[in-house]
Amino acid sequence: MYDVVVIGAGPAGSTASYYLAKEGLKVCIIDKESFPRDKPCGGGFSTGLIDEFPYLQKRTDDFLKGIAKIGVLHSPNRRVVLQGKVDMALTLRTDFDNVLFECALEQGADSCTKTRAKHVKFHQNYSEVILASGNSIKGTVVLGADGVTSLVAREAGLQRRWPKDNITACRVAEVPATNEEILERYTEDLHYHFFANLGGLPGYGWIFPKRDTINIGLGIVGTHAQGLPRIFNSFVRFLKHERLLMNNADLSSAKGALIPTGGPVKKSFVDNCLLVGDAAGMVSPLTGGGIVFAMRAARIAARVLLSALEHDKLKENSLWRYEQMWQYNFGKDLKEQLIAQKIFTSPFTDLLFEIGKRDEQIQAMVSESMVESSDSELDIKKLIIRSLLVCLRGSLGR
Ligand SMILES: Cc1cc2nc3c(=O)[nH]c(=O)nc-3n(C[C@H](O)[C@H](O)[C@H](O)COP(=O)(O)OP(=O)(O)OC[C@H]3O[C@@H](n4cnc5c(N)ncnc54)[C@H](O)[C@@H]3O)c2cc1C
Fold first, then answer.
1. Are 132 and 115 in contact (CB under 8 A)?
2. Atom of ligand 1 at shortest range from CA of 14
């Protein structure tokens, strides 16, 4: 019997396994894929993440594919372009997730890959994960780190299916490019781009230039995402027309994927079970970025479980501390970013860009929030007040 059975070896599952195994707990991490494996993603995150998880520092050569320095935001009508200087680390998820997975194994976690979990049976004092092979793995605790379509969330009764308006449907491609092709289009500072509400649809497109690839993607709120591949193709045509993408770009890697962008689950724990990362909807509703939240929640989950296992207190009336801690850590950010999402997908977005164009502080606030900069939160009240001030100043002719 394991102390903790972790389902999913993405950033959430591998990070939790790392911290649990490091403290000497018996951990088994299950994933339906074999590693290294790809995960459709932009692969961008705040550089602060590497400081937050110091064990990554010695592995940066294995996953870092550049640091983009200038964020460029395009208004829906394309008339306004805002720029901000905010570093964004870039990676390929094949490499990044593999490093996280290896770090967990180095600490002594067992793994069971290329194995799909089919059911979770919740017993009085332990859980049993039934695998597709028919075998089962038992653990005192089961950690649901199995992503946006989480089996654990469903079977624990915590989240059945994300409603369409709480999901962003994405299409993303990692386009191979030479160094010259990248420098010519994005300069040495590696300008990265966000395009708000493309074609009037709620969502955004992005370009993240990396060392030898250009990541382009498009995310649209689920209720409006019908015909996404066709919309993606017209985004690609637009980028080529703007000379932001090569005419002969190889888009054969284009894939679809979902992000839970309607805010986190109402409850992330039941007896002997916690949810972490996308399984719990821990994603910025504004940008769709979730790596940093998945990893922070995973570290908190490990801390809570360590003490809960030591004192044999694994019922809901102890595990609620997990939710309290992650809410304290980043719950407010997710709430603010949900409001920002509503504002930035509204018909007033063009107006906001017009206001933002006149104010450097607004530009800085927005661009920092676009990379989940760990040392700055998007203060929505401040942003609105600031925008109103700029309007007022404009109307007074100052
Ligand atoms: C197109 C796109 C672009 C994105 N861009 C960014 C970005 O630039 N920056 C950012 O920070 N975030 C981005 N995100 C979000 C980010 O990918 C997620 O928030 C992050 O991967 C969450 O990590 P996780 O460990 O919770 O889930 P995942 O990374 O999804 O990992 C879940 C794991 O569980 C496994 N699994 C699932 N079900 C089972 C099962 N039944 N049995 C066994 N294994 C199972 C899967 O194989 C997978 O390995 C993007 C997402 C998408 C879709």
1. yes
2. 25
Point out the ligand 1 atom lying closest to the alpha carbon of residue 280.
26
Helix (H, G, I), strand (E, B) or coil at 154: helix
pTM across the whole model: 0.94
> Where in the chain is CATH 3.30.9.10?
67-89+164-260
Does 3.30.9.10 match the CATH number of domain 67-89+164-260?
Answer: yes
Looking at the chain, which residues constitute the CATH 3.50.50.60 domain(s)? 2-45+95-161+264-336
Q: Give per-residue pLDDT as tens, 244-295.
A: 999 999 999 999 999 999 999 999 999 999 999 999 999 999 889 999 999 9
For the domain 2-45+95-161+264-336, what is the CATH superfamily, name and number?
A: FAD/NAD(P)-binding domain (3.50.50.60)
Q: Is 144 in the pocket of ligand 1 (CB under 6 A)?
A: no
- Cis status of the peptide bond prior to 11, with omega within 30 of 0: no
Are 182 and 267 a contacting pair, CB within 8 Å?
no
Can you point out the beta strands (E) in 269-356?
A: 269-270, 273-275
CB distance 130 to ligand 1 below 6 Å: no
Q: Which of 94-98, 134-138, 333-337 bottoms out in mean pLDDT, i.e. has the lowest? A: 333-337
Nearest atom (ligand 1) to Cα of 277: 26
Protein residue with least CA distance to atom 51, ligand 1: 41
- In this predicted structure, the answer to whether residue 75 has a pLDDT above a threshold of 80 is yes
Angle separating helix axes 380-395 and 360-370, nearest 10 degrees: 150
